[in-house]
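Write out this protein's structure.
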Amino acid sequence: MHVIDSLAIGGKERMAVDLANAASAKGCHVSMCVTRCEADLAAGLDQQVRLHVLKRRSTFDVRGMLHFLKALKLEKPEVLHIHGRSSFSFVVFLKSLGMIRQPLIFHDHYGVEMDFSVPLWMKCWAKRYAAVYVGVYERLTAWAEKAGFAKDRVRIFGNAIDLGRLESAEPVDLRKALDIPAGRRLFIAVCDLRPEKGVDVLLDAIAQLKPADCVFVIAGGQSHPAYADQCRRKAQEGGLENKVIFLGKREDAPGLLKNADFAVMPSLSESGPLVLIEYLAAGLPFVSSLVGDIACRTAKRFPDRFVPPGRPDLLAGKIEQLLACSLQELRRLREEESEFAREEFDLRKKIDEWIHLYQQAAASAHA
């Protein structure tokens, strides 16, 4: 059983859905428990994956706990795969009371560039209840050590997603929908509007660009309303209204990428980011800040596509380099990127590692 706070649009949530579907396709009995709200991505679950929604409103929501225990009794999972620290705190509380017998796999998707601290509840008691700690990139090894997880229980499984889902996505004609002339080159940034995503850095970079006939579309929700308002004001006050379009939250990001010319990822902190896999799989030439596992792995193959985080001047320079590329150079880059995505980030090639981990955790519980 996968356990996660919500299935709102986001990288962690997409990966949970893809993992559940991939294990189900391999013949595993898989269920998904959303502890807070169902949200947008639940429709992407395979029909064989049973969904439970607790609608809890706090960590110690008694009603939510009772519904969770009822779901466990119904599904009888051998292992609980828990995504994220909030969900882990919820489940580990019940585990510490002896109300859960299943081993817990704590899947940590957190980006620690901006916050390397360890919550007191994790360090003092929660760590002992995880059968396995799985981080999504190498820096989380040091965080797990700081938190006190035993080294023999720490694993690093790099991010991967189901590329088949991306390949079959229906294209969305952004140019037609937004009335963007064919002559203007279209950049897309798929990101939520919150500080760690660095949208303000991107706006500063756009303001530094030499006159160029291009438009930047930012597709994402606004989980941090004050920051979202700040970014919109920044674009308006900087005279960027004709260069920047805030598209809002979208469920069809893979389709949006199919008709863009370029992509950009300006984040200040990431554990992935999964959207970078989507850019690669779409064969979309991109510029990105160097944060997170996927960025570091990709930078070994495409080093000239990355800049340090928080450097709008360097980001602007890389954007201008992309704009200066010939059609032949862009065609080559598109082919190389999509091939690299298939080699490195296709979950269909990695699901057996997860299933083996589930089997090990289940076996250890019966030992």
